[in-house]
Amino acid sequence: MKIVEIKREYQRKLFKKANVIGVGIGFKYTEKVNTEEMSIICLVERKIAIERLKKKDIIPKTIKDFKTDVFQVGKLRALQLDKTARHRPCPMGTSGGHYLITAGTNGELLRDKREGKTCIGTNNHVGANSNEAQIGDPYLQPGPIDGGINPNDIIGYLLRYVPIHFEGDPSTCFAARSWGGIYNVFARLFGRRTRLKPIVAFPEYNIVDAALIEVKEADVSPEIAGIGIPKGVRQAEPGIPVQKSGRTTCRTTNGDVRSIETDIGPINYNWKFAYFRDQIVIGGDGFSAPGDSGSLVLNMDGYAIGKLFAGGEGTTIANPIQPYLDLLDAELITE
Fold it and tell me: Could you give the 3-state DSSP secondary structure of residue 239?
């Protein structure tokens, strides 16, 4: 039986264990050394001594034919914050953001497949204010917290984004809405002020945190600061070293892919919570920090493998690159 199938079979049981917030596939590490042995990775907020855990919360050392590994990531959050400068033309890896947020990172240049427009690729929570923006909203470079002012520093406008499904969103379930409606009819008849509003208790899994910002070609450069122009797209593999360039930590090269196909959550978006499927988990202290959200993650040969959007202690979370491009209906500009 393949490790992917075993992970999918057991991940629901693993998620029920206290402290587990992610389950993926990657190489097992022993005393920070890569053993190059494939394992089922369990991400936890904190590593807890086994004697302090209830029996039902202990992660087994092996699942069928594969060992497990426990990876501490802290509390995960969408990354955005800090300072940088204004640039025209603007290279990627720099400060930018929707006019109502703090700041994130201009990740890479993309070509919109529908109309051939040149666009900056970033996160929904950077370019679309976590679903709160309107199409056509201004996008500033630098971001507002770095001194960007609307309208003086507008570099582009929101073209489209992939909505994020959050816990607590209004439910579209027909049965829930029907029962809520029936209750509300009787509540009105009997003069009650309380109304039922069905919400999603456990949201759909998200795949990407993604947005497209339409820009003028003269105002931007495809070069990523400190890295250069991306060469193309590759699939992430456990164990490979990776790099990125973001507005807060600039170019970092100390990351390595710890797990792939990782289902993870909740991730905190300013007290709205979302869950993600099939994500890339990257290890490396200082690889990313608040404000680096939107950065393109590349292998050391310069090929894009993921889109950075969240992180924790010594941990970075990235969307896989191909679903990110597919759902935005865009392609990476490589020249």
Answer: coil
> Domain of 107?
77-163+206-329
Question: CA-to-CA distance for 220 and 93, rounded, in angstroms?
Answer: 11
Tokens of 320: 């896989």
Distance CA 180, CA 201 (A): 15
Task: Let me know: does 275 contact 206? Beta carbons within 8 Å.
Answer: yes
From CA 47, how far away is CA 290, in angstroms rounded? 23
- Tens digit of each residue's pLDDT (9 = 90 or more) over 55-102: 999 999 999 989 999 999 988 888 754 457 899 999 999 999 999 999
Is 87 found in the same domain as 58?
no
As a whole number of angstroms, the distance between CA 328 and CA 212 comes to 7
Instruction: Report the distance separating Cα 267 and Cα 279, nearest Å.
Output: 12
Distance, in Å, from the CA atom of 125 to the CA atom of 210, rounded to the nearest integer, reads 8
Q: Do residues 252 and 152 share a domain?
A: yes
Spacing of C-alpha 311 from chain mean position: 8
Q: Yes or no: say if 211 and 123 are a contact pair by the CB < 8 Å rule.
A: yes
**Count of the separate structural domains present in the chain:** 2
Same domain flag for 117 and 233: yes
Q: Quick count: other Cβ atoms within 10 Å of Cβ 185?
A: 10
DSSP 61: S
C-alpha span between 39 and 22 (Å, rounded)? 14
Residues 55 and 106 in one domain: no
Query: What pTM value is reported for the model?
Result: 0.84
